[in-house]
Amino acid sequence: MAFVVCGALVATTRFVDGSPGVAVALLLAFALLAGLHSPLAFPRSIGALEAQRRSAIDGRPIVYWRAGCKYCLRLRFRLGRSSRRLHWVDIWRDPTGAEVVRTANKGDETVPTVMVAGRPHVNPAPEWLRGQIPPTAS
């Protein structure tokens, strides 16, 4: 939301200064930044305990992430549609998830941290992670 508000303010000043084209371009750039840093760019987050429960049942990896993380964003987009088959936990919204990440990373909240079969992997290659997703049932 801060990106949108700042973009609107900057665009308004450019528009008033007589540069409507620049104003529109700036507003679009700020809207794009807002979208990229938004939790909406990611599959719906669930709590860490629920993700652990679901992962125990279906074997899918758990991705611990946070909004604004460029590495999380890169992982999300490079996974493409496969990202919907993972369990996503936003560590800024879930204290238990943040604790899991700190435990896995010697006190640091380094994301993305991916749990595969109970083992942490920090910032894994999307190709590798895609291979860790169990096939869907027919």
TrEMBL record:
Transmembrane regions listed in the UniProt entry: 23-42
Keywords for the protein's UniProt record, in alphabetical order: Membrane, Transmembrane, Transmembrane helix
Domain Glutaredoxin: 63-119
SUPFAM superfamilies xrefs: Thioredoxin-like (SSF52833)
InterPro entries per the UniProt record, alphabetical: Glutaredoxin, Thioredoxin-like_sf
Taxonomic lineage from the root: Bacteria, Bacillati, Actinomycetota, Actinomycetes, Kitasatosporales
Record organism: Streptomyces thinghirensis
Top-level taxon: Bacteria
Name of this protein: Glutaredoxin domain-containing protein
